[in-house]
Write a structure and sequence with these properties.
alpha+beta; Alpha-Beta Plaits; 3-stranded antiparallel sheet; globular
């Protein structure tokens, strides 16, 4: 199983959460879906052999919610879900941790001749 976090545009009210979750759960290969109105995002657990991110985005767009993959800045230390904003994991409620960017290795100095 893999996990994905999606940004959702135009998730007008909290009442829209069940509609977006239902659309994702109808996609063959999706095992979990949790939508957050305050974060305007969805967290999805899926089988990559059966579904890809494009199909998840298409499922949300089909019910009126433009979506896109999230550039992750936070990670759940428990289930490894990734998110754009700080807070608690939508699946297991664990506090998210910032993803530490990899530091670039310094370039090797050329020997003087």
């Amino acid at each position: 199983m893999e996990r994905a976090s999606l940004n959702i545009d135009k998730l007008g009210t909290k009442d829209a959460e069940p509609k977006a979750e239902a659309a994702l759960l109808k996609v063959p290969g999706v095992t979990k879906a949790k939508v957050s109105y305050p974060k305007q995002s969805a967290f999805v657990e899926y089988d990559p052999a059966r579904v890809n991110i494009g199909k998840l985005v298409a499922a949300l767009q089909a019910v009126g919610f433009p979506a896109s993959p999230t550039q992750a800045r936070y990670i759940c230390p428990t289930c490894q879900g990734t998110y754009q904003a700080a807070g608690a994991c939508l699946i297991c409620q664990t506090t998210l941790q910032p993803i530490q960017p990899e530091k670039a290795k310094p370039a090797a100095k050329k020997a003087k001749r």
